[in-house]
Amino acid sequence: MNCEEELKKAFILAWIGDKKQVEKITKECEKILSSYKPLFKEISDTRANINKDFELPKKLREKNITPEDIIQLAFFRLTKRLSLTIELDIKNSEFLKYTIIDTGIKKIIRGYCEKCKGYTYQIIKSGIGFFIQYDQIIYAETYQGKIEEIIAEIKANVKNSI
Fold it and tell me: Are 132 and 120 in contact (CB under 8 A)?
């Protein structure tokens, strides 16, 4: 399992509120990266024993802590933060996962399309609002209109980028 790629996916899924899928990815990556957990205390202790920030890299090298170790530790810490994802009502279509957040004044649509590539920006014709698609991430805001029609319009536009 490539935790770097999987955590990228988990980050987007956390953004749309897919807690179950995020937990599945983070548990697997946490098992793989758990050997880096003690490194956090060692880095913290080293940092506490220096006078100036610029001394930290030298002290870490003296303790044989490599940049790769620090990156793996950062991934481990990210798994912990991603596990705090809040579950939202996820809707699935054949190629799009999305959630609708109703703030009262506007509706925000956050989506994920695994196979999509490219950039699209468009004013929503079936309501007042816009949507943006940047590679796999879809974001839309709407102030008026039937949400079903708006979702259908977004799906039609996103389908062209697969």
Answer: yes
The contacts of residue 77 (CB under 8 Å, 6+ apart) are: 40
- Lowest average pLDDT, out of 24-28, 118-122, 136-140, goes to 118-122
Q: Which residues lie closer than 8 Å to 54 by C-beta, 6 or more apart?
A: none
By CB neighbour count within 10 A (0-12 exposed, 13-18 middle, 19+ buried), where does 60 fall? Answer: buried
DSSP lists the bridge partners of residue 100 as 109
| Strands across the sheet containing 107-112 | 91-92, 97-102, 107-112, 137-145, 127-134, 119-123
Is the pLDDT at 160 greater than 80, yes or no? no
Alpha helices (H) in 3-162, listed in sequence order: 3-16, 19-33, 37-48, 56-62, 67-82, 147-159
| In the predicted structure, residue 107 carries a pLDDT above the cut 90 | yes
Residue ranges covered by each domain of the chain: 3-82, 91-159
Dump pLDDT digits (tens) for 44-70.
999 999 899 899 999 999 999 999 999
